[in-house]
Design the sequence.
C-alpha cells in the first residue's frame, strides 16, 4: 500500500482507538466525521494539524475542501505533487 | 525641574541615577537599544520622580512614573541586610530591577547581574558571596538545573521571585535546592506597585496580602483581577483563581486560545503539564486550525534522566485526564524552554521569541 494513505489511516485510527473504537481499517469513502470513526471536530482538528505538520500542506485551503478520507488522501498527494492513485 | 533621560546599560548607571534622585531630579530610565515613550509626565515637580520601563498591559512598552519617596518607602532596610550582595536577572531599567537595586543601594549593598551563562553565574555567586537572589521562577529553575544536584551549603539567605506566576513544581525544586533561604514571592506591576506578597512557594498568596495594599479589588466575570487605585478601577491584565482565603495568578488575560468557541487558558495547560514527573518546563501556545479556529500546542522540556517516549505517554494521559477536551494539546514539541525578555519564560520559534508571562 502507498505509504501516504497508510500513514493517514494510522493517524485516524490512533485517535479512533483513543476514543474507544476498535476498527482496524479506514474506509476511504467514509465522510471525515463518519459516526463509526467516533471522531468529533476537535479530533479532526488534531488530525488536520498532524497532516499539516507531516506533509506541509493544508487540505482545507484547497478550492474544494475534502469531504471523505479518499478526498483527503487526494488533497495530500496533490499538495506534495504526487499523481492520484 | 527638567526631565532627563538616562540610558541604563548596567546597574552601576542605575546607582548613579539613584544618587541624583536623592538630591532632587526627574529622570526617565531607558534601555540602551530602545526608546520607550512617555505619554504622561509627572505634574508635581516639587518631588523627585523616576520613570521606569514597563512591558505594558497591552504588550507595548511604556514609561511609568514613580515618586522617589514612595519607592524608598517600600524598601526593607533592616540592619541584618547591610552590605549584602544581591544577585538578580532583572534588567536594570525595569521596575523589578529598580526594586532590587534600591534594596542594595539603601542597605549599602551591591548588585550582581546574572545572565544565561549558568556555570559562570554559580562561580560569581560564590566568589561575590551573594546573600540574595532576585529573579523570575524560570530563571532560578534554569540556574538550579545547571548547578550541582545536591543542596549546597551556600550563603544564599533570601530568594525573591517575581515577574511571572510561580508554579508549584518549580517552587518545590528551588526550595529543595536552597533549604536555608527565606522565600518571598511578589506579584507587582510598574503601574500599581507591589500587589501581593507571600513567603509560600506553592503559587498561592494570602488574600489579606492584597487587602492590606488595596482596599477594593474584584474578579471580573472573565476571571481578571481589577484593583481600585487613585486613578479608578484598573485591570492588571492577569487572570486569578480565588480559593477561600487565598488567591493565585494563573496567567495573562490574553494568553488564551479559542478552540471551537471554548476559551482555553494556556497557562493552566502548561501548569498541568508540569505536574507530570520528568517534565521540567512547559509552555502552551495557540495555533490556527481550519476546523476549530485554534488548537493548543504544547512545547515541553524533559529532565535529562527521563525516557522521552514514556514521558510523552504519561504527559498525554495526564492532560487528557485533567483538562477538558478543548484544552487537550493537539500538537506536541519537545524542545528547550529557556528565557525571553527580562528573564521570563520563553522559547525560540522561527526567529521570534514567544514569551509566556
Sequence:
Amino acid at each position: 500500500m502507498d505509504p501516504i494513505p497508510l500513514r493517514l489511516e494510522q493517524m485516524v485510527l490512533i485517535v479512533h482507538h483513543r476514543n474507544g473504537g476498535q476498527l482496524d481499517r479506514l474506509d476511504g469513502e467514509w465522510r471525515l466525521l463518519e459516526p463509526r470513526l467516533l471522531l468529533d471536530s476537535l479530533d479532526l482538528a488534531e488530525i488536520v494539524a498532524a497532516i499539516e505538520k507531516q506533509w506541509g500542506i493544508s487540505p482545507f485551503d484547497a478550492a474544494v475542501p475534502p469531504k471523505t478520507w479518499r478526498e483527503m488522501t487526494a488533497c495530500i498527494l496533490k499538495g506534495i505533487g504526487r499523481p492520484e492513485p | 525641574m527638567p526631565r532627563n533621560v538616562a540610558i541604563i546599560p548596567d546597574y552601576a548607571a542605575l546607582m548613579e541615577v539613584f544618587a541624583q534622585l536623592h538630591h532632587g531630579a526627574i529622570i526617565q530610565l531607558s534601555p540602551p537599544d530602545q526608546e520607550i515613550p512617555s505619554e504622561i509626565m509627572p505634574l508635581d515637580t516639587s518631588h523627585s520622580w523616576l520613570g521606569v520601563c514597563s512591558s505594558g498591559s497591552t504588550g507595548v512598552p511604556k514609561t511609568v512614573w514613580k515618586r522617589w519617596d514612595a519607592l524608598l518607602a517600600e524598601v526593607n532596610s533592616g540592619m541584618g541586610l547591610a552590605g549584602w550582595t544581591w544577585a538578580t536577572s532583572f534588567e536594570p531599567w525595569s521596575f523589578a530591577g529598580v526594586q532590587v537595586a534600591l534594596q542594595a543601594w539603601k542597605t549599602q549593598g551591591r548588585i550582581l547581574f546574572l545572565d544565561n551563562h549558568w556555570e559562570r553565574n554559580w562561580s560569581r555567586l560564590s566568589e561575590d558571596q551573594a546573600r540574595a537572589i532576585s529573579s523570575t521562577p524560570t530563571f532560578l529553575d534554569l540556574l538550579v538545573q545547571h548547578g550541582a544536584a545536591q543542596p549546597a551549603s551556600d550563603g544564599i539567605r533570601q530568594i525573591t521571585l517575581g515577574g511571572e506566576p510561580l508554579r508549584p513544581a518549580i517552587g518545590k525544586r528551588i526550595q529543595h535546592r536552597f533549604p536555608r533561604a527565606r522565600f518571598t514571592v511578589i506579584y507587582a506591576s510598574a503601574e500599581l506597585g507591589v500587589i501581593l506578597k507571600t513567603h509560600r512557594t506553592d503559587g498561592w498568596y494570602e488574600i489579606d496580602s492584597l487587602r492590606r495594599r488595596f482596599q477594593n479589588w474584584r474578579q471580573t466575570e472573565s476571571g481578571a483581577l481589577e484593583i481600585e487605585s487613585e486613578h479608578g478601577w484598573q485591570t492588571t491584565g492577569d487572570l486569578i483563581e480565588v480559593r477561600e482565603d487565598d488567591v493565585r495568578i494563573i496567567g495573562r488575560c490574553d494568553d488564551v486560545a479559542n478552540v471551537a468557541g471554548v476559551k482555553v487558558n494556556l497557562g493552566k495547560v502548561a501548569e498541568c503539564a508540569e505536574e507530570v514527573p520528568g517534565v521540567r518546563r512547559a509552555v502552551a501556545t495557540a495555533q490556527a486550525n481550519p476546523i476549530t479556529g485554534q488548537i493548543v500546542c504544547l512545547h515541553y522540556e524533559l529532565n535529562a534522566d527521563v525516557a522521552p517516549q514514556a514521558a510523552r505517554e504519561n504527559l498525554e494521559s495526564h492532560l487528557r485526564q485533567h483538562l477538558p477536551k478543548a484544552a487537550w494539546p493537539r500538537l506536541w514539541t519537545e524542545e528547550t524552554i529557556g528565557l525571553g525578555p527580562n528573564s521570563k519564560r520563553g522559547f525560540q520559534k522561527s526567529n521570534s521569541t514567544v514569551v509566556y508571562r
Notes: Residues 3-79 of chain A form a domain with the Non-ribosomal Peptide Synthetase Peptidyl Carrier Protein; Chain A fold (CATH 1.10.1200). The mean pLDDT of chain A is 93.
